């Protein structure tokens, strides 16, 4: 009991450290070189003490991480550390993940305070994808597009998105048109997007009108939702037309997905799949897991993801697993049992062969499931 609480405290402090690290780096980089006689502000003792504690904590946590199970270096913690906690410290967005990438973090925190930030959104993305999130705050001004238009669409399916509202520096394409020409399936071609979630072509489809009907006949209601791996936000866009508010988690991997979601008047949450969802327990009516959630996610991480999804869903809420794919044998032996552990009601459970080259080669299948969380536990 005492140990668990102690460790929880360690984790909490480590999380706080992510933000404090910003300050740490500032004190290290900007105040250090010119040891001028009149330092602007002496760092208060309290803060130094806090930094000291946090550094010690991060070191301790790192040591725990490096020797899982073997011997417990801290002589004070006699009983072994719960394996779950160690595992979580590998996966979770706590300071230890930043600590593992000091060169990236240092680069990210090297900037001139009170001026324009470096154009390093790639670096931020890289850190986040490595589990270093939340990122430390910075005291610089993030860059903005040079000639943005202020005539933004209300309709989440506008005929085009204004390219002038995106900073294209880090992309080879310099417009949404270019992205569409490159690959019309990336989700930026809104005329193509407008037909998504609307028709039933195979049993893997769950058209939104049908979803709404299912929910209605169960005497339930959808008002708030979360789309995990939401791409350019088309699911949220479609749900908006049904007066349902859906926020989408999305990363800017190789294209400005977050900007596209926002330009459609929808909410992009910039969080990676391994992060604890920034929502409180039991607050959403629906979670959709899109095709980003697939067999390439390590199983333990997937398990944490599903538990976190379960946490944010209200009792009676719906989980829609949309075209998840894996090897057929893994679905039977691994994923179906994992999903089964949650005790959800199977409203829809459809499996079909994945018939593209990779799918045939690996004996893969798709699963589309609509599951309802028990009303109470
Ligand atoms: C959404 O809300 C508006 C305004 O209350 C209403 O006119 C419209 O019919 C609603 N749409 C749906 C699909 O319920
Ligand atoms: C799916 O693939 C399996 C194994 O390759 C095969 O036995 C089965 O007949 C296929 N099902 C359909 C509906 O094509």
TrEMBL record:
One of its GO terms (cellular component) is membrane. Pfam families: Methyltransf_29. InterPro entries: Prob_Methyltransferase (IPR053223), Put_SAM_MeTrfase (IPR004159), SAM-dependent_MTases_sf (IPR029063). Keywords: Glycoprotein, Methyltransferase, Signal-anchor, Transferase, Transmembrane. It is a single-pass membrane protein; Single-pass type II membrane protein. GO terms for molecular function: methyltransferase activity. The keyword Kinase does not apply. It is found in: Endomembrane system; Membrane. One of its GO terms (biological process) is methylation. The keyword Lipid biosynthesis does not apply. Its main location: membrane. Belongs to the methyltransferase superfamily. This is S-adenosyl-L-methionine-dependent methyltransferase.
């Amino acid at each position: 009991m005492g140990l668990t609480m102690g460790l929880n405290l360690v984790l909490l402090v480590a999380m706080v450290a992510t933000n404090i690290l910003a300050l740490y780096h500032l004190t290290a980089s900007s105040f250090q070189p010119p040891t001028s006689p009149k330092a602007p502000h002496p760092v208060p003792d309290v803060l130094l003490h806090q930094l000291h504690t946090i550094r010690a904590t991060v070191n301790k946590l790192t040591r725990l991480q490096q020797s899982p199970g073997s011997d417990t270096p801290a002589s004070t913690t006699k009983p072994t550390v719960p394996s779950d906690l160690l595992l979580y410290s590998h996966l979770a967005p706590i300071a230890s993940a930043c600590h593992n990438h000091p060169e990236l973090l240092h680069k990210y925190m090297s900037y001139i305070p009170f001026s324009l930030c470096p154009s390093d959104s790639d670096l931020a993305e890289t850190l986040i994808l490595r589990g270093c999130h939340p990122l430390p705050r910075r005291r610089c001004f993030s860059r903005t597009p040079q000639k943005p238009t202020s005539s933004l669409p209300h309709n989440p399916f506008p005929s085009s998105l204004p390219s002038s509202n995106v900073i294209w520096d880090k992309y080879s394409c310099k417009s949404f048109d270019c992205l569409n020409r490159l690959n019309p399936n990336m989700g930026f071609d809104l005329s193509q997007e407008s037909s998504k979630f609307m028709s039933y072509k195979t049993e893997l489809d769950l058209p939104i009108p049908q979803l709404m009907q299912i929910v209605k006949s169960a005497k339930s209601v959808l008002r708030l939702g979360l789309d995990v791996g939401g791409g350019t936000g088309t699911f949220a866009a479609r749900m908006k037309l049904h007066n349902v508010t859906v926020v989408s988690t999305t990363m800017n991997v190789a294209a400005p997905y977050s900007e596209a979601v926002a330009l459609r008047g929808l909410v992009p949450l910039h969080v990676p799949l391994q992060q604890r969802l920034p929502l409180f327990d039991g607050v959403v009516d629906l979670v959709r897991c899109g095709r980003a959630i697939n067999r390439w996610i390590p199983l333990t991480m997937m398990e944490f993801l599903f538990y976190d999804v379960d946490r944010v869903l209200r009792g009676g809420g719906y989980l829609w697993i949309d075209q998840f794919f894996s090897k057929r044998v893994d679905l039977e032996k691994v994923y179906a049992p994992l999903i089964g552990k949650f005790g959800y009601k199977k409203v829809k459970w459809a499996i079909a062969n994945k018939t593209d080259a990779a799918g045939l080669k690996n004996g893969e299948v798709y699963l589309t499931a609509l599951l309802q969380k028990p009303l109470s536990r």
